[in-house]
Design brief:
4-stranded antiparallel sheet; 3-stranded parallel sheet; 191 residues; alpha/beta
Length: 191
Amino acid sequence: KVREDNPTAEGYTIYHPQKHSLADQIAQYRAAEKIIGLDGSAFHLFGFVGKPNQEVAVILRRNSNVFNSLKCQIVEFASISPTLVDAVSADWIPQHKNRPGRYSFGQLDFDAVRSQLMSTGFITGAHQWRVPRFREMKRSMEDFGRSKGIDYIRVQKAPPKSAQARARAAAHNPKSQPPNQQPSPKQEHVV
């Protein structure tokens, strides 16, 4: 609900392409000047019908490389370079999985989403965004997990290390992790 209420306050129309005919989806995509959406299937069709004068922001919905293929498709077919909004602060993954994937859900940092969309001109920021509390997000994932019979755990996204920090750490501890590896993330279990 929050993901839809915030952009609506900025003047965007919420559109669920899966609920519409192919012809209607194409018409909606071609008529839009700016599009904000979560990475996923809806952008595959957009890549084929988008126009170079449109602006697109793709919000990552989990820590994965799905965006890379979407970006290539949009760039190559529509001649648009999409804006990436990376504001995933944690992933909720099925307990039996060891990393984010197609069955995981990202926990968005709504302040970061707002800030990135403002800095790239997709929103004005004139409206206050509602930011759900952690308890609300956790309860939502617990309810969803129960409905599917899946136990989810929360994996905190490790902050990226600068190249300088990685080099310093390696120099001080030769047995430390290789520079391209991140420390183990913090986990929180959800039943």
